[in-house]
Amino acid sequence: MSTQVSEQPTPVTEQARTPLVRITGVKKYFPITRGIIFQKKIGNVHAVDGVDLEIYPGETVGLVGETGCGKSTLARVIMRLYDATDGTIEFDGKDITKVRGGELREIRRNMQMIFQDPFASLNPRRTVGSIISEPFRLHRTVAKSKIKPEVQELMELVGLNPEHYNRYPHEFSGGQRQRIGVARSLALRPKLIVCDEPVSALDVSIQAQILNLLEDLQEEFNLTYLFIAHDLSVVKHVSDRVAVMYLGKIVELADGVTLYENPKHPYTGALLSAVPIPDPNLAAHKRRIILEGDVPSPIDPPSGCRFHPRCPNAQFPKCQEDEPELERMTSGQLAACHFPLPDRAIMDEGAGTPSG
Amino acid sequence: MAEPLLEVRDLKVHFPTDDGLVKAVDGLTFQVMPGETLGVVGESGSGKSVSFLTVMGLITRKQAIIEGEVIFQGQDLLQVPADEMRHIRGARISMIFQDPMTSLHPFYKVGTQIGEAIRVHQKTSKKEAQDQAVEMLRRVGISKPDERANQYPHEFSGGMRQRAMIAMALSLNPDLLIADEPTTALDVTVQAQILDLIDRLREEFNAAVVIITHDLGVVAEHCDHLQVMYAGKIVEYGTADDIYYSPHHPYAWGLLGSITRVDEAHKERLHPIKGLPPSLIFVPSGCAFHPRCPYVFDKCKVDVPELLPSDGHHAAACHLPLADKERIYAEEVAART
């Protein structure tokens, strides 16, 4: 079942009326099989279960949730790395759900991805130059003789020394490797870059450098980002709008400040209350919603609201039977909850302003 | 004043390699008082893990040149023979590691692994050790501990594995628990649970805790004292309030400026530290931080600054005069908001 969302919070740029990406009712189920020769399907992992989302040109949409909530799967469905089980994906006004072959390759030129682990996403046996120039060779957008200067320009752009063209990934630190990943994703000047936990493997000081770099590049090339992370503070920092995912569904969609000040879904509240704040006094002001237990299995998700077994505010039997839809709340955002949190449920009135 | 539980004096750990001497820890002096929580903060390669691995006796003179003293409960651990160290490690000092995925043995049941730790140090039967393991799993908040004890690590989620590691580390009621990046591999929600758990257990077991991390944000609520490390040295030491509200070292400013804050009212640019941590073979002259420091002046390039207390215990190793530091930090904060 998919929730119909007619209106979404206004994007930042006024000219951006038509979304770059529009996904409607997207589902991705992974079959579970039993048997070796005669495989029998015995169930499905409901990784993504009915998601609608629009991403406008030039904006950054954050996708946040715990491990196993389907955020990476959703990104891969949008990238067409997985085929959606149901629903449609539109990119730049064109339905790309079923596109194949050369046409798909053409579309992929405009959407690139930055991966989480800068150690696993670079081939250790190839030089940096050859890693970054791979997209040029695949898509033949640049003449062979021009490849090297192009790559060096890219390296300079992301803050790498162009003279390191012939070095191997192991000669670089984690942050520098992530810069290589960024350079590779930029090579074809895509419209959309999907960043899948691009900084969670890095030290905080290096994280900040990469986040600033992504921001600069967005401004320079008018990029659109889909930014995935499990840390709400990182997502809020980079994003114009934030979508909170839980067990394959979006449970809240809002701009960052609204989300921080007035989270409506108890799950958002719990995520927010878990985010560490580098300020001992402010941290003491924060109300905590501690979640019991782990995320339930997506093989057999709970009935009604999927969050009800862990929800501190759940009221029975309504939450158990009736699945809430994304609805507009008084504070402006969309949230899927029967009993939304009151205003300023996590942060005290006085604690909302940074004390320095 | 009470006796410190652990006192490290001028500890140096240098690794000889083909490329030269790696000065991973270079003159480290600090104390851990009984029952307190000390946060150790620094980037990768600042020597924070190496120094505590040396305290644990996991880095020995076979691998490195070790100098200095590590006094734990009146005993210099660097002089203790290896087999005696084995009785101390695990029973009186224990450690939890960053990656719960690789620190549990995949072939053995979780309960057996916790029981093994108990049986190494205490004369108990297998059955009793198993019962104790189940009890420990219950205390760290794992539901159905008797069933869980009979499962293998792959059946545990990341957060539960880290809980099992904590259960193992605390099963012998140690006086000092060293947590090396205990939450880096975990989700934010689980991270909060684990840190709360460590806090609660510290009171319950009356142990001192050292939390090693690269993220100043994580430990704000949990530490009594913090020490900031850079290139094998402590550059700033103080209470949590000192470090978060009036840090005195430009490196600490940089670390604070790098954190994305969920409480910022509008989108601000981060203020990261420029460049990369230095090579520990060719440590920069003078203050090791000077090539990355925006407030560097001539003296920094020549003289190594000492860790000097400014008021009581809040100390920073920086040549800038205190008045300048306070002014600059106030300006930095003003520029951010």
List descriptors.
heterodimer, A: about 350 residues, alpha/beta, 8-stranded mixed sheet, about 20% strand, globular, disordered N terminus, disordered C terminus, B: about 325 residues, 4-stranded antiparallel sheet, about 35% helix
Helical run tally of chain B: 13
Q: What percent of the residues of chain A sit in helical stretches (DSSP H or I)?
A: 25-40%
Give unreliable regions of chain B as ranges.
Answer: none
How big is the Rg of chain B? 21 Å
In whole angstroms, the N-to-C terminal distance of chain A is 46 Å
- State the shape of chain A: globular
Which strand order do you get reading across the main beta sheet of chain A? 6-7-8-3-9-10-12-11
Please report the distance between the alpha carbons of the first and last residues of chain B.
41 Å
Please tell me about this protein's structure.
- The complex is a heterodimer of chains A (356) and B (337).
- With 356 residues, chain A is an alpha/beta fold.
- An 8-stranded mixed β-sheet of chain A has the order 6-7-8-3-9-10-12-11, with helices on both faces. In chain A, strands 2-1-4-5 form a 4-stranded antiparallel β-sheet.
- In chain B, helix 4 runs parallel beside helix 7, helix 5 crosses helix 7 and helix 7 packs parallel to helix 8.
- Chain B is globular.
- Chain B is an alpha/beta fold and 337 residues long.
- Chain B has 13 helices and 12 strands.
- The model of chain B has no long low-confidence stretch (mean pLDDT 89).
- The interface between A and B is large, with 51 and 49 residues.
Offer a quick outline of the entry.
Chain A is α/β, with parallel strands linked by helices and 356 residues long. Chain A has helices spanning 71-78, 101-108, 128-139, 147-157, 174-186, 204-221, 232-238, 256-261, 266-274, 280-285, 318-321, and strands spanning 21-34, 40-55, 60-64, 86-91, 94-95, 111-114, 192-196, 224-229, 241-246, 249-255, 327-328, 334-335.
